[in-house]
């Protein structure tokens, strides 16, 4: 079970992440490190530079995320597992797209949280 502090950390993180993503996704690269791994729609990227490039090259100009409060669990190595469900609207489309995103946050040598793992998937049936 997650402590109230971890729930608060997860809530602050996802709020920051999606606010930045919607405003200027290029700024998200600072949340990743060279050891980070992201899978976006089954396409893997490794390292902050490659992840940043992937995020910049996404084929839409405008996006708005709406999400439910995240589920959070501590990991055995002191990290944080965060699961998010939500909807996004791209380029002022009329139909929101459902998505799922999983993050694992870890601390770097300076003690700052970063995204170690990131899995994003549109939920389509």
Could you outline the blueprint of secondary structure elements for this entry?
Blueprint (H helix, E strand, L loop, with lengths): L3 H21 L7 E9 L2 E4 L1 H9 L6 E5 L3 E4 L5 E11 L6 E11 L5 E10 L3
Parallel strand pairs: 1-7
Antiparallel strand pairs: 1-2, 3-5, 4-5, 5-6, 6-7
Provide tags for this entry.
transport; Nuclear Transport Factor 2, Chain: A; 2 helices; single chain; alpha+beta; NTF2_dom; 125 residues; Nuclear transport factor 2; 7 strands
Short description:
The chain contains two helices and seven strands; from the N terminus they run H-E-E-H-E-E-E-E-E. With 125 residues, the chain is an alpha+beta fold. Strands 1, 2, 3, 4, 5, 6 and 7 form a seven-stranded mixed beta sheet that branches.
Describe this structure in words.
There is one protein chain. The protein has 125 residues and is of the alpha+beta class. The protein has one domain (4-122): Roll (Nuclear Transport Factor 2, Chain: A), CATH 3.10.450.50. It is built from 2 helices and 7 strands; from the N terminus they run αββαβββββ. Strands 1, 2, 3, 4, 5, 6 and 7 form a 7-stranded mixed beta sheet that branches. The radius of gyration is 14 Å and the shape is globular. The N and C termini lie far apart (31 Å). The mean pLDDT is 95.
């Amino acid at each position: 079970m997650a402590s109230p502090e971890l729930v608060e950390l997860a809530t602050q993180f996802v709020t920051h992440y999606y606010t930045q993503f919607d405003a200027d996704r290029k700024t998200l690269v600072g949340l990743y490190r060279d050891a980070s791994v992201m899978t976006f729609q089954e396409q893997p990227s490794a390292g902050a530079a490659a992840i940043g490039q992937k995020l910049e090259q996404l084929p839409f100009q405008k996006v708005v995320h709406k999400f439910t409060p995240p589920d959070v669990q501590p990991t055995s190595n002191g990290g944080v597992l965060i699961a998010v469900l939500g909807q996004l609207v791209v380029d002022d489309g009329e139909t929101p797209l459902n998505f799922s995103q999983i993050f694992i946050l870890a601390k770097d040598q300076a003690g700052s949280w970063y995204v170690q793992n990131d899995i994003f998937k549109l939920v389509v049936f």
